[in-house]
Design a protein that fits this description.
326 residues; alpha/beta; 7-stranded parallel sheet; 9 strands; globular
Amino acid sequence: MTQEKNVITLQHKINSGFNHHSTAEDVLRDMDLSGRFAIVTGGYSGLGLETTRALVNAGAHVVVTARRPDVAEEALSGLSGVEIEEMDLADLSSVRAFADRFLASDRSIDMLILNAGIMACPETRVGDGWEAQFAINHLGHFALTNLLWPALTTQGGARVVSVASTGHHFSPIRWDDIQFEHGYEKFPAYGQSKTATILFSVELDKRAAEHGVRAFSVHPGGIMTPLQRHMPKEEMVALGWIDESGQVANPSFKTPQQGAATQVWAATSPQLQGKGGLYCEDVDISDMAPEDGRFYGVKQYAIDPEQASRLWKLSVELTDTDMTIS
């Protein structure tokens, strides 16, 4: 059986016992994470803040990476067991500097939660002219994970959880114009970045599993958080996300506490022991996307092992980073 068939065979619900309404607190209620160490990128805002709060309340020690450390300090005040480290995913020199500082501390990582991201922003270029959503949501996290590889393999059993989105339905990888140099569209660019996030987890798991590291991607659900900061109110009203007063209008939207549940589950659940490279949503492994166009499940192109391998090679070339496996 090919790797692709293996992935698709495993890509189905396992009846985890949780659901769309479960919170991160529900997931960790009976779990003691004392002595466990996590890194959460952007763990001071929106879903990241709720993820950090849930992990430390369960006993974990968390390093939060922040582009705005002063904002992070304020948001995380009162939480014990948290460190804040400056890092900007749009700047690979900043990513390298953080990774160097962390590796110098000689600590191991149990959970690496790649949570930070941007959505539907105006056309922005970072790095070597890279489209910002692809660069920040994928390339920055790709480089970070590869640079932190030695700390992920110290003890075995580490998990890398990438926050993706059902937005990956908007676009596969646009191999002929990944950087949107021939006409920018904010939602297809966002969709491509999240497809890249899922493909990254597929290839990472393939490479890392024999070293005791497993990778997952997750769709947290629709949630109103600072992620929507680039979208005008009128657009969100037209989409049915909020009403004219700014209140959530879509009944399927989750609270931030519910939105954090799937990434916390993917990072900790014993139900995922021996599994990896899978896309999860609603605190369970997801099914494949239906053919009727509904925004549910994972598209086949997002877990295609050939595309995952191709994207990995391109990402190595762009970031000049690759894990060293002995």
